[in-house]
Design brief:
It is a single chain. About 30% of the residues lie in helices and about 15% in strands. The chain is built from five helices and seven strands, in the order H-H-H-E-H-E-E-E-E-H-E-E. The strands form two sheets. Strands 1, 4, 5, 6 and 7 form a five-stranded antiparallel sheet that branches. It has a two-stranded antiparallel ribbon with strand order 2-3. It starts with a helix and ends in a 6-residue tail after the last strand.
């Protein structure tokens, strides 16, 4: 009988040693009720990036302001309404907004011919852009587009803002300054010597 008690004594001693060797459970200390600050809600998942519709992607270009950078989408209608209120005899609309690099190059080829390993101008009157979309990308090429073109009309006839038509060009300068008030860059008033009257783009700091 004494042998059994001896065995039990050893077993219980072993159990006590094991129990003492276990780490103490961590105590969760909550602040007082009046000091408790609840956790902030989780941040919403980021919105999926916009992309051109299958139809727009297939065409390689868009004339919809919905395919533009948010700054353009928000500011253009505001300035448009302000300008047309001042000139009720005029209308205006967007022309090209987004252009794929491939379509950009097709525009670049106008008035040019490929000779001696490079594109050379043979008819300057047909040239519509100096940006080829590959070596040099346009603000129209990213999606959403960082630029848009627009046209002013009188009696449904386009008023092209070229230097040989100063009265038309002055209208693009006027609305260009309105766009500048909202932080956009107008091709009619920008720093370059050559002007692109109906061109509008986001500020360089945004790109």
């Amino acid at each position: 009988m004494s042998g059994i008690f001896q065995i039990l004594r050893i077993v219980f001693s072993f159990i006590r040693i094991v129990e003492k060797s276990k780490p103490e459970p961590k105590r969760i200390v909550r602040p007082a009720e009046d000091e408790y600050v609840p956790k902030p809600p989780p941040e919403p998942a980021p919105e999926p990036k916009r992309g051109p519709s299958p139809e727009t992607l297939k065409a390689g270009w868009s004339k919809s302001i919905e395919d533009c950078h948010d700054n353009l989408r928000q500011v253009f209608p505001i300035v448009q309404a302000r300008f047309l209120a001042k000139h009720p005899d005029l209308t205006m609309r967007c022309d090209y907004t987004w252009r794929s690099p491939e379509f950009q190059h097709k525009l670049f080829e106008k008035g040019r011919a490929f000779a001696d390993g490079e594109w050379k101008i043979f008819d300057k009157s047909q040239v519509v852009t100096y940006v080829d979309g590959t070596v040099k990308r346009s603000h129209h090429n990213p999606y959403p587009s960082q630029a848009l073109d627009f046209i002013i009309f009188r009696n449904k006839k386009p008023l092209w803002g070229t230097k040989d038509k100063p009265e038309n060009f002055a209208l693009y300068v006027e609305i260009g300054k309105m766009f500048e008030e909202h932080g956009l860059i107008s091709g009619a008033t920008w720093k370059y010597n050559w002007k692109d009257a109906g061109h509008l783009q986001v500020a360089y700091s945004i790109v």
